[in-house]
Amino acid sequence: MCGIACYIGKKKALPVVISSLKSLEYRGYDSAGVAYVIEDKIKLIKTSGKIINLEKKLDLKKNTYLCIAHTRWATHGKANFKNAHPHTIGKITLVHNGIIENYKEIKNTLIKKGYTFLSDTDSEVAAAYIDYNYKQTNDILETLEKIKYELKGSFAFGIICSDEKDKIYALRKESPLIVGKSNDGFFIASDVPAILNYTNKYYLLDNYEIAVIEKDYVTFYNDHKVIEKNSNTFNGDNNNVNKNGYEHFMLKEINEEPEVISKTIKELKNIKSLDKYNKIDIIACGSAYHAGLVGKYLFEKYADIKVDVHIASEYRYSPIFKEKNNLAIFISQSGETADTLAALKLAKEKRIDTLSIVNVKESSIARESDEIIYTYAGIEIAVATTKAYLAQITTLSLLALKTSYEKNYISKKEYEEYLNDFNKISEEVKLLINSSYEEIAEIIYKKEDIFFIGRSIDYYLSMEGSLKLKEISYIHSEAYAAGELKHGTISLIKKNTPVISVITNKELKDKTISNNKEVISRGAFVIAITNSIIPDDSYNIKINIPDINDFVNPILTIIPMQMIGYIVAKKRNCDIDKPKNLAKSVTVE
Ligand code: G6P
Q: How many CA atoms lie within 13 A of 148 on its CB side?
């Protein structure tokens, strides 16, 4: 989390870094700040809260051509002004993303040596530690070569040294950092979208690599030697980083879903089957974990492969049993989620085959994994994922379908028919996006609690629907396996408590209908999302969705839940694209 955006070049730096920083705001928005060089002095300006507050404090016309900037997601120390980056200590000013795990020991040592600290952050300690070492070596490069092995945890730094005000130093370990290159200057950024308004050329910094950036050139070092690096070109367009007339990125991204499905089918029509595996573990966080559950349903039902789905932060601290013909699949939109990345490294240590399903090309998870399947969602900006989740479940569906076919559970004819259905659903998805959810949103938006229920695949989809609603509207929401509700949670149902009940699973439909009736008897207001005919007394409002087949039905079922979350949050005047306390890319554990 946290976004770093730095610029050095011929353009005035402040408008550049502010525009770059804005496209990184999904990484956190607790505070923001810049440090720039003007008239041979380093000037620091910071604010609490969002980048817009910082922008108001800045004179963008200032004649500065070197600036480091930061948007923060608080880890150490409250989200306030004093903990905002950049931090200056002695001759070092820096911005940091990551967590310095041994900062306390270092801080205590430095206090004994006379350093005083103004903030509660680990980042300020890193600045002091670099300054302390610089005093011994008088050489910033040597200093960075030394401290990079001494600081534990993860870090991406953009650094200015007051003895060299014409350079920016960049260094990373575990937290992502790229160096962008345009015709008139260089950038350092946490992610590619930050540079796309200026250039599509960039270098990926690897762990422990250092970049020294001057107005006209960049030099990369590792272990005291200059290293050659090839630049990458981002081939998408930068429309993705603009709202294109939509009120929110989330709505824009939901509206891009039909296109995401078409693209995924086109790109993945020759997807490799996983028929050689007897056991699959899927490991992920957040919505990607929910996508994994959809994969479990399809692989178990249609390819007869046992699948366990794990939350990455749990998996990485659990005993891992290597089984025969075992595959571990890691799902991540960003490809940078710290827990997922750590879990991947662990599986590799255990010599388990690894496959990652990742949206961001060349991200850490993509680079670490034995095999990669990229999802085709394009850049996603809204913190609450929609189209990237959809791309994940579409990819898993195609994988399960191919595996089922290769294992002869379905015939060639059936396989082709199923594939054909994928091509047809874009239109259905458009219709679902454009349906009216106003009446339902009106019922929900003033409530403080809501429940989602379903069984099997419907439960897995409910989990994602519930997460969507709660993360952007701040309404307390829980997803429950419908049959489990009466083991405690039903005691929370009272008059008019909304219950969203998902019923698409034919085999279990009657069971969930009974659960609907149980909650209705206790006063609940049931909103059914279904592709079946269900009795009138088992719901209060019904959303009908098409019934095509098990591989594509999950894609259709999630759309109304995404839309309900969005409209409810809008009615509550929430900051939909940047919900409080969250960040899109969770690069700390
Ligand atoms: C955050 C995001 C979620 C995402 C999760 C996992 O919590 O807000 O939308 O599902 O991280 O992220 P990943 O990039 O690994 O998919």
A: 24
Which of 219, 240, 261 corresponds to the end of one domain? 240
Please give the average per-residue pLDDT across 366-391, as a whole number.
95
Q: What is the pTM of this model?
A: 0.86
Task: Quote the percentage of the chain above a pLDDT of 70.
Answer: 99
**Burial of residue 43, with CB atoms counted within 10 A of its CB: 0-12 exposed, 13-18 middle, 19 or more buried:** middle
Query: Angle CA(337)–CA(343)–CA(349) in degrees, nearest 5?
Result: 135
Give catalytic status of residue 2 as yes or no. yes
Cα Rg, the chain, nearest whole Å: 25
339 residue type, one letter: D
Residue finishing a domain among 386, 413, 431 = 431
CA distance 494 to 497: 6
Task: For ligand 1, pick from 1, 175, 332, 581 the residue to mutate: most ligand atoms within 8 Å of CB.
Answer: 332
Pairing of strands 92-100, 31-38: unpaired
- From the alpha carbon of 360, which atom of ligand 1 is closest? 14
Question: Ligand 1 centroid to 281 CA: how many Å?
Answer: 18
**CA–centroid distance, residue 243 to ligand 1 (Å):** 21
Angle between helices 257-267 and 387-406 (to 10 degrees): 30
Q: How far is CA 205 from the centre of its chain?
A: 20
Neighbours of 420 (CB within 10 A): 10
Residue whose CA lies nearest to ligand 1 atom number 2:
584
Give SS3 for 548: coil
Encoded tokens for 524:
């609940």
E strands, 117-163, are: 153-161
Mean pLDDT of 432-444: 97
- Domain assignment present for 580: no
CA of 377 to the centre of ligand 1 (A): 14
CATH number of the domain enclosing 401 = 3.40.50.10490
* Residue 395 counted as domain residue: yes
pLDDT band at 269; cut points 50, 70, 90: confident
Measure 114 CA to ligand 1 centroid, in angstroms: 41
**Would the CB of 178 count as within 6 Å of ligand 1?**
no
Buried b (16+ CB within 10 A) or exposed e, 241-268: bebeeeebbbbbbbbbbbbbbbbbbeeb
Encode pLDDT of 207-216 as tens digits: 999 999 999 9
Chain-wide mean pLDDT for the chain? Answer: 95
Domains in the chain, number: 3
pLDDT on residue 421: 95
Best probe residue, ligand 1, of 586, 588, 589 (max atoms within 8 Å of C-beta) = 586
Backbone angles phi, psi at 261, to 5 degrees: -65, -45
Residue 45 has pLDDT above 70, yes or no: yes
Nearest one of 80, 71, 95 to 20, comparing CA atoms = 71
- Residue 69 tokens, joined: 């900037």
